[in-house]
């Protein structure tokens, strides 16, 4: 980041200068640059615009909207880039963060069956997701099921809703997968061959018949497939080729959520 305060050149004829207060200067930093108008009609300086857009990116947004209440107009990135006089380093940060945030939004967004708008899920451990648009339109809480994409029926915080055919494939796999028989570890019975990683929830199949440890490719945490403890915990009381001191962990009935 440069410590120099960016400022508009009054001779730049592509800008629309105005003599008003800086309407994106939410921290009252009073930048000295002349003010220019954005496409939505609000006045900015390059510094206030940069700071506001940086804040949006830090909040996980991938689009730029005016910060004035009652405006909320979206500014195209080309406009932001020009009006904020983004430096090459800032451009790089803006562009890579926009792409990252867009990918994350896409992963955490699904189409609401009520209004067909994309809804972003905040709580990854809850299958019933509130749609704000439908809630306002109907005048009562509207939730849909993240799994079967129908209006939510039944108890909140369940593994599935009460609609026909709403099952969690992952949980079904955990419940029904065959058991693994370790050749080198005696007296280990009833260990399923597929587990959800206790750290991040990824489904993993154990193929080694000798060693009970496995490294999760997603979160890179090494854990014990038998007792589901972190490997360093398990090996405190038993060797890697011995039965665990705590018993075989039962089949999992919920998928752990990764708290990064
Ligand atoms: Zn505006
Ligand atoms: Zn909706
Ligand atoms: Zn459902
Ligand atoms: Zn993992
Ligand atoms: Zn263990």
From TrEMBL:
Signal peptide: none annotated. Residues 20-248 form the RING-type domain. It comes from the Eukaryota. GO terms for molecular function: transferase activity; zinc ion binding. SUPFAM superfamilies: RING/U-box. InterPro entries: TRIAD_supradom. Keywords: Metal-binding, Repeat, Transferase, Ubl conjugation pathway, Zinc, Zinc-finger. This is RING-type domain-containing protein. It comes from Oryzias javanicus (Javanese ricefish).
């Amino acid at each position: 980041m440069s410590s120099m305060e960016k400022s508009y050149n009054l001779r730049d004829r592509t800008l629309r200068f105005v003599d008003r207060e800086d309407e994106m200067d939410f921290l009252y930093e009073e930048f000295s640059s002349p003010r220019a108008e954005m496409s939505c009609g609000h006045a900015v300086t390059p510094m206030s615009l940069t700071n506001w857009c940086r804040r949006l990116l830090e909040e996980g947004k991938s689009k730029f909207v005016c910060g004035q209440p009652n405006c909320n107009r979206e500014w195209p990135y080309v406009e932001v880039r020009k009006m904020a006089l983004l430096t090459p380093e800032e451009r790089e940060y803006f562009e890579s963060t926009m792409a990252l945030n867009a990918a994350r939004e896409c992963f955490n967004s699904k189409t609401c069956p009520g209004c067909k708008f994309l809804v972003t899920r905040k709580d990854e451990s809850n299958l019933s997701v509130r749609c704000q648009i439908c809630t306002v339109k109907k005048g009562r809480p509207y939730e849909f099921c993240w799994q079967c994409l129908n209006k939510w029926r039944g108890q909140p915080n369940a593994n599935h809703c009460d609609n026909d055919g709403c099952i969690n494939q992952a949980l079904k796999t955990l419940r029904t997968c065959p058991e693994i028989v370790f050749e080198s570890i005696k007296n280990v019975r009833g260990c399923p061959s597929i587990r959800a990683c206790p750290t991040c929830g990824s489904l993993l199949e154990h193929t080694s018949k000798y060693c009970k440890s496995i490294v999760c490719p997603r979160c890179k945490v090494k854990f014990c497939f038998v007792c589901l403890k972190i490997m360093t915990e398990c090996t405190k009381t038993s060797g890697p080729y011995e039965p665990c001191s705590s018993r075989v962990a039962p089949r999992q009935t919920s998928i752990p959520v990764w708290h990064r």
